[in-house]
Q: What sequence folds into this?
């Protein structure tokens, strides 16, 4: 069940997910303040985010389950009412409930940021893996992982000896669930970024487990906390709060589109005229109307690139640039090796643009907010703007010819 504690029609939602045997009280500190109340002492966050909590049934039950099993079942049968009987189910089933809640309860939000504690992180990570592996749309843009046992929790190994609770079996180190989820997660190219928080004094989830495994550089935050105090910060000066505020603020900055959502336009045809990507197009005799479109694409890609400053986002951008470069090389190799009828450079540009649009939701799919096909076309010309790169539009690849052309343009624009 999702409970809203701050709902004012904002485009962005922060959704909290508790862990094993937890609930909304997981997030309340000794002064009675919930985690989100400390965050919203910053008015900018209050003005841009709604806040809600996802709760599910999780209790430490079934101790010594073999004892009096038939008696318990008989009592349940005789005393059954029309009320639902809640019970512990596996993390995979909780993930399915979470997916349904996400789809129908918060589907109207453009962006969702998840803040998950302990087992809750495995719940949402598994839900995301299910959707992303099926190429289903998701509005989840980022996950803050607070003491989540990505590699399992050692205490679960001992506790499962006393209980048949399915949660404990899934949480155990080297469990099929944890290892399988990690394998699936690493294979997803379009997964949202995770910020890994761990407690220095956490004796339930080790640092190694809380920081998990990834094939990109991880963003790791050390907190002066144990397993529970990390989600019950005493005040807004705690690392858990200050870091979370910073990530939420960065996200707002990254999703801010200029001029109320309008794409940037050229002020004049002379703008960007001496950039190397433009000179390469001119050298290949590409039509002026195509060059203008390439300039606008480049302009928007340059603006967007400046929005992503974190190490994780930069890594995702680098992967995207490399894939765009691969699309270019596939087409350019055919271009230079083809026999008649041979494409013109202008047709080559149009062909690669079409490929980028076609692959926007496939090979070039990205979890980075704002980035779409227009920006990706601009990223192609950012690659061409690098003289040390290998993106050209004709078989002639002469830096000297570009410099001569550049000098001609500069001379023509200099007042007499």
A:
């Amino acid at each position: 069940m999702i409970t809203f504690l701050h709902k004012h029609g904002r485009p962005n939602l922060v959704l909290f997910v508790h862990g094993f045997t937890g609930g909304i009280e997981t997030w309340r500190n000794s002064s009675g303040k919930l985690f989100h109340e400390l965050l919203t002492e910053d008015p900018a966050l209050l003005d841009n985010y709604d806040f809600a909590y996802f709760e599910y049934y999780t209790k430490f039950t079934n101790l010594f389950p073999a004892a009096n099993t038939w008696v318990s079942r008989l009592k349940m049968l005789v005393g059954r009412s029309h009320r639902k009987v809640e019970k512990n189910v596996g993390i995979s089933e909780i993930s399915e409930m979470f997916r349904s809640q996400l789809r129908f309860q918060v589907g109207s939000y453009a962006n969702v940021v998840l803040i998950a504690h302990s087992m809750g992180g495995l719940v949402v990570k598994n839900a995301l893996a299910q959707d992303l592996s099926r190429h289903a749309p998701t509005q989840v843009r980022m996950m803050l992982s607070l003491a989540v046992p990505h590699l399992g929790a050692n205490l679960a190994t001992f506790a499962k000896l006393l209980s048949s609770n399915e949660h404990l079996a899934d949480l155990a180190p080297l469990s099929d669930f944890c290892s399988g989820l990690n394998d699936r997660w690493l294979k997803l190219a379009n997964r949202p970024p995770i910020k890994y928080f761990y407690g220095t004094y956490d004796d339930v989830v080790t640092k190694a487990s809380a920081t998990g495994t990834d094939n990109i550089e991880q963003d790791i935050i050390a907190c002066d906390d144990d397993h529970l105090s990390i989600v019950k910060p005493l005040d807004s000066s705690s690392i858990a709060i200050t870091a979370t505020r910073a990530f939420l603020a960065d996200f707002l900055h990254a999703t801010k589109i200029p001029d109320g959502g309008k794409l940037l336009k050229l002020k004049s045809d002379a703008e960007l005229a001496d950039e190397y990507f433009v000179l390469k197009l001119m050298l290949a005799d590409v039509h002026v109307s195509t060059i203008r479109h390439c300039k606008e694409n480049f302009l928007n890609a340059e603006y967007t690139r400046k929005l992503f400053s974190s190490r994780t986002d930069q890594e995702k951008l680098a992967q995207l640039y490399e894939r765009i470069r691969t699309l270019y090389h596939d087409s350019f190799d055919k271009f230079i090796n083809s026999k008649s009828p041979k494409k013109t450079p202008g047709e080559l540009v149009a062909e690669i643009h079409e490929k980028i649009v076609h692959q926007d939701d496939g090979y070039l799919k990205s979890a980075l907010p704002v980035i779409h096909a227009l920006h990706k076309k601009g990223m192609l010309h950012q690659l061409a703007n690098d003289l040390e790169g290998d993106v050209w539009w004709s078989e002639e690849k002469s830096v000297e010819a570009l410099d001569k052309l550049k000098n001609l343009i500069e001379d023509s624009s200099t007042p007499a």
The chain has a mean pLDDT of 83. Residues 259-413 form one domain. The chain has two domains: 2-254, 259-413.
